[in-house]
Amino acid sequence: MKNTSISCGQKQNDVRLMLSEKLFLTYGRKPLCYIHSYGCAQNVSDGEAIMGLLSDCGYGFTDSTDNADLVILNTCAVRENAEERVFGNIGELKRLKENNKNMVIAVCGCMTQQQHIADRIEESYKQVDIVFGTYGAENLPKMILDVLSERKRVFCLDRTGDTISENAYRLRTDNIKASVPIMYGCNNFCSYCIVPYVRGRERSRETEPVVQEVESLVKNGCKEVTLLGQNVNSYSYGFVKLLQRLNDIDGDFRIRFVSSHPKDAGHELIDAILSLPKVAKHLHLPVQSGCNEILSAMNRRYTKEQYLEIVDYAREKCPDFSFSSDIIVGFPGETYEQFCETKEFLKRVKFDNIFSYVYSKRQGTKAALLPDSISDKQKGLWLRELILEQREIATQWLSRFVGKTLVVLPDGKGRTDKGYLVGKSDENIIVEFEGDEKLIGQFVRVKIIKAMNWALLGEIDK
Ligand code: SAM
Ligand code: SF4
Ligand code: F3S
């Protein structure tokens, strides 16, 4: 595998200038970049950092690959079907490249941080010019320069740079909501999960730059900031302290965060959520399974009883406290009875929403070595069963809000009917209501009149 040669003395700014000149010589106009980020909010945020870097070099952006001079697929490795979708999309780019010889194609992110994936692209997808992983995106201008100047392919999986742009300027397209990474990587090594292998060990950003970034976003009209990390509760400088600092920032905005790990989320976190007015009253707390044997095999390091203790503590103080979660169905060795324990667990907690997935074997993880006798088809049926169960639970849970007034931040048009807006309440519940488009991006008090299984319906509380 070849690495691009970037001499230490070569200043990033000089490279950006050289690339700007090269872009003008090659295209004779402002070149356009199409970038698609798959996977989680962290990856989308990395995509925004890549856009920030490229706009400094003179690129504009397009929503279509048809008129793009640079195509970037920023990939996710969390499940096999995500990876296969990317290979399908790379395949489709071959035809476009045949019609545009100066088109540059780059594939980056979690998927390409795995050597076997980079090798597969090198051997079988010759239309791809640049491959890098989750590190060293600051070298992208140099990689593009090399491709345009020497028509060579550049592969760089070094882990020597920052994970994508740890302190980079992010080009954000949403003025109302913004994500702010507070930490990178993961130390937890859940036995099924590829993330620690492709994102490296945990690293926290210092508090001051985070506070300054949020201050600046709020000054520019942002109404909702979501703090990002694989396990925000292990933020090195104290997560609750960070929430307190951010809550003190002047302005009308709210704070969310994902994800929390149940082994590190405790009473202090719940107390902070309930006492800090700008922090949304909701906790996304991925449980993965409601069966202790499976949780242990997953290396999650908590029991269902410990999880329930957090839920009960929160609901005792605030009966409407909203929880959402992630669930994996069909972990290797899981029996139908153990799966049913998870269904029972959902009934007990009453999540307002879950993100559920069939287990996907990830090469290099511990779980990939475990015997697995249940077919994917069977696991698919279990997943369906779980989703149907959750629908009933959600409809019942959401009905408790009928007659109450929730604070909603509308961010677009609703689908209930013409003239409806949609947004999320403080509790992270989708709410639709009839209202003028001018209300998009403003907090609105909405009186709830009906509960559906995916959302609430309301009217403006006058
Ligand atoms: N760090 C977060 C946590 O611990 O909750 C989750 C991050 S992961 C990117 C998002 C979700 O993907 C996980 O909560 C899990 O439910 C799911 N996931 C991860 N690895 C998976 C796998 N091998 N198969 C199926 N789902 C998986
Ligand atoms: Fe993956 Fe577990 Fe880390 Fe979440 S905490 S990213 S599930 S290893
Ligand atoms: Fe996110 Fe997928 Fe990577 S979920 S951290 S983009 S493997």
Strand order of the largest sheet: 2-1-3-4-5-6
The ligands bound in this entry are: S-adenosylmethionine, iron/sulfur cluster, FE3-S4 cluster
- The count of DSSP E runs of length 2 or more, i.e. the number of strands, is 19
CATH class of the largest domain: Alpha Beta
Computed Rg = 23 Å
Query: Helix proportion of residues, in percent?
Result: 25-40%
Strand content bin = 15-25%
CATH topology descriptor of the largest domain? pyruvate-formate lyase- activating enzyme
Could you give the distance between the termini?
64 Å
Shape: globular
Kindly name the structural category.
alpha/beta
**CATH architecture type of the largest domain:** Alpha-Beta Horseshoe
Unreliable stretches, pLDDT < 50, 5 or more residues? 1-9
- What do the pLDDT scores average to? 94
CATH superfamily of the largest domain: tm_1862 like domain
- Count the domains: 3
| Major beta sheet summary | 6 strands, parallel
How many DSSP helices?
13
Provide a concise account of the structure shown.
With 462 residues, the chain is of the alpha/beta class. The protein has helices at residues 12-27, 41-56, 80-99, 115-124, 140-150, 195-199, 207-219, 239-247, 267-275, 292-297, 304-317, 336-349, 376-398; strands at 32-37, 60-61, 70-75, 104-109, 130-132, 154-156, 177-181, 183-184, 203-204, 224-228, 254-258, 282-284, 322-329, 353-358, 405-413, 420-425, 430-434, 444-451, 456-460.
Furnish the topology, listing elements before pairings:
Blueprint: H1 12-27, E1 32-37, H2 41-56, E2 60-61, E3 70-75, H3 80-99, E4 104-109, H4 115-124, E5 130-132, H5 140-150, E6 154-156, E7 177-181, E8 183-184, H6 195-199, E9 203-204, H7 207-219, E10 224-228, H8 239-247, E11 254-258, H9 267-275, E12 282-284, H10 292-297, H11 304-317, E13 322-329, H12 336-349, E14 353-358, H13 376-398, E15 405-413, E16 420-425, E17 430-434, E18 444-451, E19 456-460
Parallel strand pairs: 1-2, 1-3, 3-4, 4-5, 5-6, 7-10, 10-11, 12-13, 13-14, 17-19
Antiparallel strand pairs: 8-9, 15-16, 15-18, 16-17, 18-19
Bound molecules: S-adenosylmethionine (SAM), iron/sulfur cluster and FE3-S4 cluster.
